[in-house]
């Protein structure tokens, strides 16, 4: 018998009224799972940042007992804008923020088209929020079981995660990974080997099913259900689903697990 850990659901903000209507239905369908948190992505690129605030505000009023967690990225944003947004979340009654560096399009990154007053790492963003808001927010950061692609080494990656905790982050949500052992290695803070994002055996099976969408979907659900079972059996504190605003795969997996 496995212990069912709380579920967190990641959503992205729709950018059309029709998308928003669909998302409202999606939220209703998720409600039987007793969601612990809904997190809302935030585009470091800038185009749909206002939509994040709108969805956060909506969830804050409609998400029943779930915690609403806005993602906040710093790369490409100036400090004044970050402060304004943090005050908005403060006023909304938001308690928890996922503090991230963010990714911007490579062309913009290399052109260094950033405001002068900018923060370029998640650790510095954590420091910035603590400086201005003290303990007002719980801060979550990103962690990488299969190591951040730009990390200079696995050791540096873990050391940097610890630096984010030392700066004031209280917990982390991991990047999705396909390998429970990688998560366990991260948790154990032990040596890890760099591995491909998608294991070879999964890639080969995906290729087999490329003309058979039903089998492809069933295979994906089977792989992720088994991964979640392994993680729950090891008493992970929670499962965070990158839903892409689609309800059905997550619901199916949750039901397989007994939620
Ligand atoms: P950081 O923690 O600042 O750095 C990432 C890595 O760089 C570190 O793990 C470390 O290996 C290395 N590094 C950085 N600084 C140092 C240093 N001084 N010394 C040594 N190593 C260093 N992106 C978005 O744009 N919007 C989102 O909404 C969003 N949501 C996300 C949600 C989750 C759960 C995760 C895991 C990622 C999300 N991302 C999002 C992607 C994220 O912004 C990218 O992965 C980005 O490349 C790194 O962000 P970070 O906060 O991990 O950065």
Number of strands: 7
Low-confidence stretches: 190-196
Class by SSE composition = alpha/beta
**What order do the helices and strands follow?**
EHEHEHEHHEHEHHHEH
Tell me the β content: 5-15%
The biggest sheet amounts to: 7 strands, parallel
Number of helices: 10
What gross morphology would you assign? globular
Percentage of helical residues? 40-55%
What does the model show?
- The chain is an alpha/beta fold and 259 residues long.
- 47% of the residues lie in helices and 14% in strands.
- It contains 10 helices and 7 strands.
- The protein has a 7-stranded parallel sheet with strand order 6-5-4-3-2-1-7.
- Strand 3 (67-73), helix 3 (79-92) and strand 4 (96-100) form a beta-alpha-beta unit.
- Helix 5 (122-133) packs parallel to helix 6 and helix 9 packs across helix 10.
- It is globular.
- The two termini are 13 Å apart.
- The model is unreliable at 190-196 (pLDDT under 50).
- Residues 41-44, 71, 73, 100-103, 121-123, 142, 144, 148, 150-151, 156-157, 160, 173, 175 line the site of flavin-adenine dinucleotide (FAD).
